[in-house]
Amino acid sequence: MFSIKSIKESNSPEDGLCKLITKLHADGPIDNILIENLTYYKVFHPETFTLYEEKIISSLGLFYKNTEPKNLYSFILSNIGHSHKVRFGEYLTPVQASVRTAVERKQFVSISAPTSVGKSFSIRDYIFDLQGDCVIIVPSRALIAEYIKTMRDKFKDDKKIMISSFVDYVFTKRKLRRIFILTPERARELFTSKIHLNIVLFFFDEAQVSEEKERGVIFDVLVRRVRKHYPEAKLIFAHPFVENPEAQFKKHSIDEVNSYSRSYPHNTVGKVFVFGHKNSKDYYFSPYIENGHNLKNCIELDCDFEKFAFDGKKSVLVFVSKASLYRGDFLDNFKKFVDNFDKIKSKRALEIIREVEDVLGANDNNHKSKLVELLKIGVVIHHGSVPLNVRFLIEDFIREGFAKICFATSTLAQGINMPFDIVWLDNMRMQGSSEEDKSLAFKNLIGRSGRLSINPTFDFGFVYTNNARLLSSRVNNSYRLSESSLLESDADKFTDEKELITSIIDGTFNEEINFPQTKIERLSNQHIFDLIKETLDLIYGDEFGKHLFGRENRENRDVVKDNLRIIYEASLGRELLDGELNVFNTAVVIFFHVIRGRPFKEIVGIRYNNISNRNGDRNALAKFTQPANKLPDSTLRHAYSLFPETKAKDVSYDAIVFDTYDYLDMVIAFSLSDVLMGAFYIYHSATKDSNALKMVELLKYGTNNTIHTLLIRYGFPPDDLKEISEYIDEISEENILFKPDVTFSHPYIKELIEWYLP
């Protein structure tokens, strides 16, 4: 192998490239230093590299890039690609073909490979060809968005495959194959007796979530339940940068005879690492050699990398903290470049921006959105609290090449398939309980640099840091999965998960209600039943909402809020802590807005006007509101404000948008609704009060409007229900029919309903 310096100073780059191709042919792309060498030959000797590029692409196994080779070597190797095309329908790489073969032949597969290798692609491609229902489990809302877009694009012309982000069984008149894309928390609904599915495959992507203390318990419980209820289904686990993927089999006592596991070290995308030294100069360095970050082993750049990166012609992912996005100071170090960006003129880009404005309510003169204003010059904000439909639009904006800079948090480290020319590490603070966890997240993040393209070229990207030593450490850290499940851990080590773990182990987990039996008993006492009855009377008495909405019913809303709190506390077996209580109360207030029929942007507007004191002294401090946080959380002991020491006039509209979305998604949908639905379901089982089932529906869908509820179950966005319902001719669990005049609806609505038309 060669040093960066020797490659730059080489007088015969042909000789070096030939040696690298020979080694690549013999060993495959398993050595990061070899891939790095190729990258620097392309950087320093581009003309010579072009002469060998076709051979390099072939030796990397990227057959889809070169289906009609022009040299003998590539022609011979192309036969491998053609054989994959015949067998699998795609020009798969050797790694992808290996994974595809494994999932075809084995019931249980657990693999690991670096970002950009395309492991998930080969598994998704197999899912496309299957018969029967499939479930894809991902750890985050961001990945749900990614998968839904990928799957819907693939199946947009196939009206026999329904893609859903929650578990349901509608459209039964159409003979459908169903693909569910779920988080571990949402997958629990697969096991109710009301759902009749033919699930033949479970794909657990980013399965290293099994190592997280809290979510790992939910993940492992899910795997155990899948093994019990769907014993014939295939189980596939995919991870990035994990050395022992076979640990998933040992955790869950999976027979290794019908199993396949492998950690693929293969890498086909180059990385150029650059660090800004404190001497104000920029250097190329290699994290793969010992002390590669020392100046004696580095090469000084002959340009200012900052100017090179932010010239407006490249796409740059800037990794920043979520706190800086909320504060607004994430731009401070980049303002000199951003201020020089021209306004976007593309008709398509402006169309996306207008849609984002409308969803956020940012087209109101009083609602100033920095997210929207930055989009107009090609600067993007992306993180897990951006509303999902806005995230779809933003990701389209990025993929279609309109983004010059994307300021993002760790959500992009979780497998979101959005490539950038450069990853700029504004900080190195990664989430994780250990250095190994942080290193894994870090390697995922820098994998966004230089993703594989379809172009017949060798792909590479840049990674910039101010801390080359820490970067080198994290790149070289290994990550191993635990070979024992968290369910086998001492339950006393857990706080809020202890009851769940104990019930799984001793067999007292009630699979119909999805509660431990001890929790069901606490929710079945007469006091809780009395509170539930009072709540139902206030919500449904006389007519829905008559005793709940309006200024005259404020005391009734407080009663309902207190009742729901006591019910929730009973489910936990403890009182809420001060911080938890603030989150709970805010969530219930937002829930009241939802069930009153207010759209997202109106709820945001109401909260913004209140917190920013729109009708009062705007120089006074912003009103208190606690940031959204998952519940329960035994560390949330104290109250703290989303806007500490902030004047009312300086309250960020975007921060309210993000916080409101987190309350709806993280708190109401993920933390509270299942528990409260379970409580009302238990009450109905005991009393047969039909209003309890209405409340379950209200908690699940945010409405008791039959048409709106069914539209949500069919997969339509909640904020579009009113407009879509105008075109409904007939709807039931069996079928959905639209009126003829739907052909004259807005193009956005027509696109939404196209798949559902006969």
Automatic annotation (TrEMBL):
It comes from Aeromonas simiae. PANTHER family: DNA POLYMERASE THETA, PUTATIVE (AFU_ORTHOLOGUE AFUA_1G05260)-RELATED, DNA-DIRECTED DNA POLYMERASE. The keyword Hydrolase applies. This is DEAD/DEAH box helicase. It comes from the Bacteria. It holds the Pfam family DEAD. GO terms for molecular function: ATP binding; helicase activity; hydrolase activity; nucleic acid binding. Residues 365-453 form the Helicase C-terminal domain. Signal peptide: none annotated.
